[in-house]
Amino acid sequence: MKLAVIEGDGIGREVIPAALEVLDAFGLELEKVPLELGYLRWERTGTAMSEEDIETIKKCDAVLFGAISTVPDPGYKSILLSIRKELDLYANVRPVKPLPGIVGVTGRNDFDFIIVRENTEGLYSGIEEIGTEISWTKRVVTRKGSERIAEYACQLAKKRSKKLTIVHKSNVLKSDKLFLDVCRQTAGACGVEYNDMLVDSMAYNLMMHPEKYDVVVTTNIFGDILSDMCAALVGSLGLVPSANIGKKYAFFEPVHGSAPDIAGKGISNPLAAIICVKMLLDWMGKPEARIIDDAIADVIQKKIITPDLGGKASTAELGHAVAKYIIQNL
Ligand code: NAD
Ligand code: IPM
Ligand code: MN
Predict the structure, then answer these.
(1) Is 298 helix (H, G, I), strand (E, B) or coil?
(2) Which residues have any ligand 2 atom within 6 Å of their CB?
(3) Among 59, 184, 207, 226, which one is least packed by beta carbons within 10 Å?
(4) Conformational region of residue 205, where left means phi above 0, alpha means psi within -120 to 50, and beta covers everything else
(5) Band of pLDDT at residue 71, cut at 50, 70 and 90
(6) Closest-approaching ligand to the CA atom of 244
(7) How far apart are CA 139 and CA 274, in angstroms?
(8) Contacts of 233 (CB under 8 A, 6+ apart)
């Protein structure tokens, strides 16, 4: 098993070392392939990622990624989006689940749902023209792209034996009618109970009744926005992990970005990155991954938490405490 490790920029350089300490606590046979990509590399060399880097990533089985800053240059193409496309990571899976003892803005903890975000098309098509009087971006929805994400979401819903909510804006964006129709057909064919919601109303309902949802499937940009919003439900953007899944590769990254406002202070919350390690181990078929849940519950109970959750622990202290629990209890 070869794991590409991309810390990236800003707090990516803090949360990934903490997550790696947790991964190392499992003592697995695993070759780590560190890659320096992103804004810092671009500043230094003028290139954020080369063709060779992509080839190196393709020779790995999975990727653990921190975050990258967006380069302030209109010609710059996000390397994250390039990797998602190159590896055809079509499903962006973002579980929204409260941690024991931590509540978010609504004060509730009775929910557990997963956002399944289409990850290769929609408004992220990259087909655009930028002008001074008019700029446009083409929103692409394909049957194939919709079918495979709907299929992924339905298989997940079946495992969780609950239901699917299809989120769209087909009242205005007629391209979403194709997405909605394909999701409905796929859910019907898979025998999954489903409903659908317009994205604006879904945002409201997720805040008011998060307990009603199980698997939420949506297009690229809506999944992006809803997942940050839902971080407020669990208490911090530093708690939401994600897995970008394709037929061949898997790429694990926290939902948050490089957080320049806190970067370098050592106070970023590494739990999203640590839960990414759990998702990686689950993907590798390692049942011992579940000890990460116990370890996280233990450190929260001991109040070893970062300032975003009202604590005083540093990123490294929190990562170390989780790793120590695993070493002592595995
Ligand atoms: P952000 O997610 O970096 O930060 C938003 C807010 O949440 C900030 O106040 C930040 O301090 C806080 N926050 C985020 N993660 C946290 C953590 N682990 N612990 C504690 N607090 C945390 O979003 P932004 O500020 O809009 O974006 C900053 C840069 O990151 C931009 O260049 C953006 O393009 C990039 N970005 C990258 C990724 C990625 O690489 N996966 C994702 C989102 C944004
Ligand atoms: C995310 C990020 C990315 C996205 C950006 C950094 C390209 O916000 O992973 O949620 O929009 O997908
Ligand atoms: Mn985002």
Answers:
(1) helix
(2) 78, 80-81, 224, 255, 257
(3) 59
(4) alpha
(5) confident
(6) 2
(7) 34
(8) 96, 98, 104, 105, 106, 108, 111, 206, 207, 210
Q: Is residue 194 helix, strand or coil?
A: strand
Closest CA to 217 of 124, 152, 141, 159: 152
Domains, the chain, ranges and CATH?
1-102+239-330 (3.40.718.10), 111-234 (3.40.718.10)
- Tens digit of each residue's pLDDT (9 = 90 or more) over 30-60: 999 999 999 989 888 888 999 999 999 999 9
170 in Cβ contact with 176 (< 8 Å) = yes
Mean of the pLDDT values across residues 95-104?
97
Surrounding ion ligand 3 within 5 Å at CB are 224
Ligand 2: residue whose CA is nearest its atom 4: 224
Name the percent of the chain lying above pLDDT 90.
93
User: What are the structure tokens assigned to 26, written together?
Assistant: 């499992």
* Closest by CA position to 120, among listed 166, 152, 155, 96: 152
pTM score above 0.90:
yes
pLDDT at 264 over 90: yes
pLDDT tens digit sequence for 12-30:
999 999 999 999 999 999 9
Ligand 1 lined by 262 (C-beta under 6 Å): yes
Beta bridge partners of residue 194, listed in sequence order: 164
Q: What region does 29 belong to: left with phi over 0, alpha with psi -120 to 50, or beta?
A: beta
Q: Measuring CA to CA, which residue among 311, 239, 316 is closest to residue 15?
A: 316
CA dist 264 → 9, 213, 303, 315, 330 (Å): 10, 37, 22, 11, 32
Pairing of strands 113-118, 91-96: antiparallel
Tell me how crowded residue 108 is: count the other CB atoms within 10 A of its CB.
Answer: 13
The tens digit of pLDDT for each residue in 222-253 reads 999 999 999 999 999 999 999 999 999 999 99
